[in-house]
Amino acid sequence: MMHAEDLPYMDKALPDAWKAAGEFATAISSATASGLTLAESEIIKVRVSQLNGCVFCLDLHSRQARKHGVPQQKLDLLPAWRETTLFTSRETALLAVAETATAVPLSENSKAD
User: Fold this and answer.
1) In this structure, are residues 36 and 45 in contact, taking their beta carbons and an 8 Å threshold?
2) Where on the phi/psi map is residue 69: left (φ > 0), alpha (ψ -120 to 50), or beta?
3) H-type helices in the chain, by residue range?
4) How far apart, in whole angstroms, are the C-alpha atoms of residue 63 and residue 91?
5) Per-residue pLDDT reduced to its tens digit, 29-47
6) 88: closest CA among 74, 102, 68?
7) Which tens digits make up the pLDDT trace of 83-100?
């Protein structure tokens, strides 16, 4: 079984991806000035971390989400957020936008033929 400490550091292995992830996290965090709650911010970061498969980020943002009052049940059901009524309409809208933004190619070279 692989543990988080056995994985390569993303900032060393994929510096461009690490930079983009940092910029995304900063943008989401700064959105709290425009009305996004800290709990909503962390829910978004957890979901994006799930999609990207980043164990470091997933661990970090899951802990932060619980710290900011996100119930464990929401974190447990986050991968299936479309199938549950546990999330508010605002949260489902935020998750839809976050998933769409995560799937958008980062450059012209990322486009499919």
Assistant:
1) no
2) left
3) 10-13, 15-30, 38-52, 55-67, 72-77, 89-103
4) 19
5) 665 656 889 899 999 999 9
6) 74
7) 999 999 999 999 999 898
